[in-house]
């Protein structure tokens, strides 16, 4: 039995399509290509080949690119077949591949998993890749590229290296105390670097909110009294009828949402039930749900058709802006004096909608001048980073080198969980490369 | 034909512990070794303990093994290393008088009733039906045994190098062991080759002691053994000197004549025990390397120069040694040398140190790729206990990473194998704060009592100690104080209104039981023997709690054992790659399986659910049998 199966799968999108890409990875790749397409093309050069079954029957002709391992995506021998994207063509080729001994269809995510196992990608990069594939806005793409391209991993690995170095120095002091080559005074510089590291990690954690906005979109909740025109605004911004609009107050019972793309960012717009006292069971539930999304909002649009109705008693975070929007100005624009609202609009005429969009853009994160988007984009990252930072803080606060070392170990475990792992052998390697220990 | 429950081959550090442990469990035991008078010989440096190693000695002692007591009887310079760096990393160490050590060890071995010592070269193993059944001596004698423990140290195809001179030997002046190496090959075990080295021995009468520095012993020597009250030997100083530029130059100029650097040696040596050649090649620019001049005994003029082990030719050794301050006209009693030897890949072993492919055979000591007396002794204990248990048809007794350094070492060896001689370090133990030298007795003696390897004397003494400890802890936990009351007695506590017990307060820096006496005169009742332990336990209590959950998790994973003959191809849902890797590495339990490369959470839960199913099935079968 071979240690590693060779796997294959259609790697491009839904069929039919102009072109389809079939990817093969594993030790049998070269052999399979030889048998399907004749001579193996030169590594990493596209070659036009006829693809045949084992009986010589022609299946298609297409471009064949061969990537010998380890310089390939998975780290194994890999091949990509670019063929015509017809259903029958692709299925015939997949069937032909299935006929080879030791070949099987890849499981979901298996190419990336192999890349991970072969050390081509770390965990953060694999996650980044998954995000890249699903990225819809420009900013999501940039964030995912940063992550899958290793920018974020490089940051974490840099930290992990510093931590490993610090631990190695401390461990050397503990395990080789009787050796004169170990300077007892390295600690001073080590601890000041650890304090600095904790600061850098905290600053990085602070970026998590930004990353979440980029990944999941800026959450804007449209709120206001029943009949203020909330659902109409949602429909106007979405440019289609998503919410039911009637003149009956309390029409909207559930939270509706729509994703928009605004200046490269994703924006999630929520329409809610108007907040009011009511005995109506369904509406009450709608109001409860409305309060829940308001609690998570990044920005609130508070709508009203009359100057007096901007009442707002909902608990939201300090830094969540509440923008007062006067509605239906085609009908009652005369009732408003300047300054009584931040924005004035009518969904009927479209007046003020452009102003609203400009205003929203001003609330998007300002990424001008930023060269790197390395920020923790998942809760998993943030959790581990917080654990690391807390352990570092403790390592600086407690007494006793053994206990301090224990905190550093916890910090490095937490950091290691994001990308991979640190091992004691790793520590010993650092010690032996820097010190002449042993009698 | 004479027949035993357990035969131990090799009277080194591993062998003595193995023989004693097997005998303590009541097995009829024989110790087969080349010469009675080399039992307990220290092949290399005359010292026991140190960082990580001292922990091992304390653990051997906690199970009533020999090394701690013998070291106490032979110790001539006790020092507690890392005294100021926290109790978890303190390492007891002593220089030992070689002769006193050997004699004390031989006395211990002689005193064991159900133990025979047999002199001679064990040449082959007797097998019965794929099971080891005894020992065949070179002279033709045959001894039968239900279990055999092999502890032949550096003797398997041992080859000494001095410059380009090669001498087959197990130690200087002792013949190597060739037959057994072939036997292990025949059993299909993977063997490897390692090397280690030792420095020249010097005549102390020819050293200019005025030109070297001094290192003294601790004023108040702390013994290794729970059973030792005071150290009786006179304590001595050792000398300290350094290599010079002239030393470095001679070594650099002659490096091609070193067996290490001329390509004569294929074995891998330890990085933490480098030869002086290695130090010069790798860290040449240093302003000198430290050398300890350690007397080998109270009435022995031999000096062991710790720090300059070498395989250079004798003339070069003499030349470079005489460039060292104090050693200008030193007489060399015996040249330094490097030794290469065969070892067995420890991944061939189970946690009980029995060879998987050969039931009835156990391996311990340097033969498993470790280095050091303490590592050898600790393995000897494990192998001796388990050989006796196997001979009696009892369940194996295995150590865990969470209860001891012994457990850490055996888990490391059997799951990862080795790439250089394995030595203990405190950094290898992830539960270092819990596994302290000071609490070794509390960690292991109760299990030893239950198992039956702890003698009457220690059982009584431990029982009374533990009683006093628990009384003291109960008392400390029953006394409490509010921050306000504390302030009145000059105790600065967080003003949070929380009542704190005396035990809690001891966790603060600078608080001692002694210091709390004015506040609580009752504390006088605490037995002075246990106050140190209480103090440390109080200081570590919060960390212990934090580790306890982790430890419980690991214990659960460790206790999910995977049968040795487990057929992974039967397990649906695992990828072929993973099946292959698991079949190759044969993790002994779930904790080890989780460390196999590419093991996913899904695969772990598959494996676990299968193990649970097997367990339930076994219980059902047992239940039916009982009816
Ligand atoms: C030159 C040298 C340098 C070393 N340097 C260091 C060092 O710097 N640091 C360190 O920590 N450790 C060092 N050691 C290692 C340390 O001595 C060993 O790790 C330790 O002694 C191993 O114990 P053991 O019980 O496994 O084997 P040993 O102590 O070697 O005992 C083996 C015993 O088995 C007997 N024996 C072997 N074969 C047979 C047979 N076929 N039949 C009967 N009896 C047999 C021998 O006579 C001997 O009594 C060194 C060892 C040597 C030889
Ligand atoms: N004239 C005018 N009527 C509007 C405008 N926006 C909403 N309406 C009307 O106001 C009523 C309530 O609107 P709706 O969007 O359902 O309000 P909601 O309860 O806040 O969601 C409906 O009859 C809408 O047609 C507007 O800009 N101009
Ligand atoms: Mg509505």
TrEMBL record, chain A:
It holds the Pfam family TrmE_N. Residues 217-365 form the TrmE-type G domain. The keyword Phosphoprotein does not apply. K(+) binds at residues 227, 246, 248, 251. Its main location: cytoplasm. Binds 1 potassium ion per subunit. Mg(2+) binds at residues 231, 252. It is found in: Cytoplasm. Exhibits a very high intrinsic GTPase hydrolysis rate. Involved in the addition of a carboxymethylaminomethyl (cmnm) group at the wobble position (U34) of certain tRNAs, forming tRNA-cmnm(5)s(2)U34. This is tRNA modification GTPase MnmE. It comes from Rhizobium fredii. The lineage of its organism: Bacteria, Pseudomonadati, Pseudomonadota, Alphaproteobacteria, Hyphomicrobiales. The gene is mnmE.
UniProtKB/TrEMBL annotation, chain B:
Keywords: Cytoplasm, FAD, Flavoprotein, NAD, tRNA processing. Its cofactor is FAD. It is found in: Cytoplasm. One of its GO terms (molecular function) is flavin adenine dinucleotide binding. Its main location: cytoplasm. Coiled coil: none annotated. GO terms for cellular component: cytosol. One of its GO terms (biological process) is tRNA wobble uridine modification. InterPro entries: FAD/NAD-bd_sf (IPR036188), GIDA_C_N (IPR049312), MnmG (IPR004416), MnmG-rel (IPR002218), MnmG-rel_CS (IPR020595), MnmG_C (IPR026904), MnmG_C_subdom (IPR047001), MnmG_C_subdom_sf (IPR044920). Residues 538-609 form the tRNA uridine 5-carboxymethylaminomethyl modification enzyme C-terminal subdomain domain. FAD binds at residues 10-15. NAD(+) binds at residues 269-283. The keyword Flavoprotein applies. Homodimer. Heterotetramer of two MnmE and two MnmG subunits. Belongs to the MnmG family. NCBIfam families: mnmG_gidA. NAD-binding protein involved in the addition of a carboxymethylaminomethyl (cmnm) group at the wobble position (U34) of certain tRNAs, forming tRNA-cmnm(5)s(2)U34. This is tRNA uridine 5-carboxymethylaminomethyl modification enzyme MnmG. It comes from Rhizobium fredii (Sinorhizobium fredii). The gene is mnmG.
């Amino acid at each position: 039995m071979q240690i590693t199966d060779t796997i294959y799968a259609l790697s491009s999108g839904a069929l039919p399509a102009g072109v389809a890409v079939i990817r093969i990875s594993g030790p049998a790749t070269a052999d399979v290509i030889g048998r399907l397409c004749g001579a193996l093309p030169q590594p990493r050069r596209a070659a036009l080949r006829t693809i045949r079954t084992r009986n010589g029957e022609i299946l298609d002709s297409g471009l064949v690119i061969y990537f010998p391992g380890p310089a390939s995506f998975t780290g194994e021998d890999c091949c990509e077949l670019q063929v015509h994207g017809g259903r029958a063509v692709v299925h015939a080729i997949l069937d032909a591949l299935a006929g080879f001994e030791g070949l099987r269809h890849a499981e979901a995510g298996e190419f990336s998993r192999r890349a991970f196992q072969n050390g081509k990608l770390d965990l953060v990069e694999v996650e980044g890749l998954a995000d890249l594939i699903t990225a819809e806005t420009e900013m999501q793409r940039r964030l995912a590229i940063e992550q899958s391209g290793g920018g974020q991993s490089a940051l974490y690995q840099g930290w992990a290296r510093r931590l490993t170095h610090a631990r190695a120095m401390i461990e050397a002091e503990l395990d080789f105390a009787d050796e004169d080559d170990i300077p007892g005074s390295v600690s001073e510089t080590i601890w000041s670097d650890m304090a600095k590291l904790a600061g850098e990690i905290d600053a990085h954690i602070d970026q998590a909110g930004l990353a979440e906005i980029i990944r999941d979109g800026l959450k804007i909740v449209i709120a206001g009294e029943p009949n203020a025109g909330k659902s109409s605004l949602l429909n106007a911004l979405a440019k289609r009828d998503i919410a039911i609009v009637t003149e009956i107050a309390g029409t909207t019972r559930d939270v509706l949402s729509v994703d928009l793309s605004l200046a490269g960012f994703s924006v999630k717009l929520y329409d809610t039930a108007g907040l009011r006292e009511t005995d109506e069971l369904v509406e009450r539930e709608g109001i409860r749900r409305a309060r829940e999304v308001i609690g998570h909002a990044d920005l609130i649009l508070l709508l009203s058709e009359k100057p007096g109705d901007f009442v707002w008693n909902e608990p939201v975070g300090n830094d969540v802006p509440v923008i007062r929007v006067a509605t239906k100005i085609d009908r009652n624009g005369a009732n408003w004096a300047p300054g009584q609202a931040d924005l004035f609009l009518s969904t009927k005429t479209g007046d003020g909608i452009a102003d609203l969009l400009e205003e929203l853009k001003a609330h998007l994160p300002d990424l001008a001048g930023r060269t790197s988007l390395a920020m923790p984009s998942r809760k998993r990252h943030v959790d581990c980073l917080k654990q690391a930072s807390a352990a570092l803080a403790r390592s600086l606060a407690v007494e006793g080198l053994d206990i301090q070392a224990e905190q550093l170990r916890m910090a490095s475990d937490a950091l290691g969980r994001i990308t991979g792992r640190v091992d004691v052998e790793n520590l010993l390697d650092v010690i032996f490369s820097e010190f002449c220990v042993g009698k | 034909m004479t027949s035993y429950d357990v035969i131990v081959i090799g009277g080194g550090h591993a062998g003595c512990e193995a023989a004693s442990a097997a005998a303590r469990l009541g097995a009829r035991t024989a110790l087969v070794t080349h010469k009675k008078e080399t039992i307990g010989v220290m092949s290399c440096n005359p010292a026991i303990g140190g960082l990580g190693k001292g922990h091992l000695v304390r653990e051997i002692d906690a199970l009533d093994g020999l090394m701690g007591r013998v070291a106490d009887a032979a110790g001539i310079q006790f020092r507690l290393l890392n005294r100021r760096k926290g109790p978890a990393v303190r390492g007891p160490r002593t220089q030992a008088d070689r002769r006193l050590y050997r004699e004390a060890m031989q006395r211990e071995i002689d005193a064991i009733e159900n133990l025979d010592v047999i002199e001679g070269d064990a040449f082959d193993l007797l097998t019965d039906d794929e099971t080891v059944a005894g020992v065949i001596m070179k002279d033709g004698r045959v001894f039968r045994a239900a279990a055999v423990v092999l502890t032949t140290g550096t003797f398997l195809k041992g080859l000494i190098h001095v410059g380009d001179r090669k001498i087959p030997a197990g130690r200087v002046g002792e013949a190597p062991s060739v037959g057994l190496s072939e036997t292990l090959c025949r059993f299909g075990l993977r063997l490897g080759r390692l090397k280690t080295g030792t420095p020249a021995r010097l005549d102390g009468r020819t050293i200019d002691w005025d030109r070297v520095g001094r290192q003294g012993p601790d004023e108040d020597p702390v013994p290794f053994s729970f059973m030792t009250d005071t150290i009786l030997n006179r304590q001595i100083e050792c000398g300290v000197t350094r290599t010079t530029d002239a030393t470095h130059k001679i070594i650099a100029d002659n490096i091609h004549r070193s067996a290490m650097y001329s390509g004569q040696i294929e074995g891998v040596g330890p990085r933490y025990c480098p030869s002086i050649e290695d130090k010069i090649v790798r860290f040449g620019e240093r302003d000198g390397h430290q050398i300890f001049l350690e007397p080998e005994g109270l009435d022995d003029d031999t000096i062991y120069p710790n720090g300059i082990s070498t395989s250079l030719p004798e003339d070069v050794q003499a030349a470079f040694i005489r460039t060292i301050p104090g050693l200008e006209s030193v007489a060399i009693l015996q040249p330094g040398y490097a030794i290469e030897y065969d070892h067995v890949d420890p991944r061939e072993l189970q946690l009980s140190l029995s060879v998987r492919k050969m039931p009835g055979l156990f391996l311990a000591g340097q033969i498993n790729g470790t280095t050091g007396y303490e590592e050898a002794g600790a393995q000897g204990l494990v192998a001796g206990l388990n050989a006796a248990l196997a001979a009696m048809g009892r369940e194996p007794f295995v150590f865990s990473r969470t209860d001891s350094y012994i457990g850490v070492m055996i888990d490391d060896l059997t799951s990862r194998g080795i790439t250089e001689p394995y030595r203990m370090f405190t950094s290898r133990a992830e539960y270092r704060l819990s596994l302290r030298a000071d609490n070794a007795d509390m960690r292991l003696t109760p299990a030893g009592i239950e198992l039956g390897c702890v003698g009457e004397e220690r059982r009584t003494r431990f029982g009374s100690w533990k009683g006093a400890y628990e009384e003291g802890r109960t008392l400390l936990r029953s006394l409490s104080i509010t921050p306000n009351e504390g302030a009145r007695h000059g105790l600065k506590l967080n003003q949070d209104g929380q009542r704190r017990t005396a035990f809690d307060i001891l966790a603060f820096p600078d608080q001692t039981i002694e210091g709390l006496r004015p506040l609580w005169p009752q504390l006088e009742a605490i037995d002075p023997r246990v106050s140190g332990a209480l103090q440390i336990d109080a200081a570590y209590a919060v960390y212990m709690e934090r580790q306890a959950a982790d430890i419980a998790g690991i214990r659960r994973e460790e206790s999910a054992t995977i049968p040795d003959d487990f057929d992974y191809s039967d397990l649906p849902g695992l990828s072929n790659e993973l099946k292959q890797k698991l079949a190759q590495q044969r993790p002994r339990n779930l904790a080890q399986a989780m460390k196999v490369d590419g093991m996913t959470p899904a695969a772990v839960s598959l494996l676990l659910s299968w193990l649970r199913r097997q367990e339930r099935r076994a219980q059902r079968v047992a239940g039916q049998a009982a009816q």
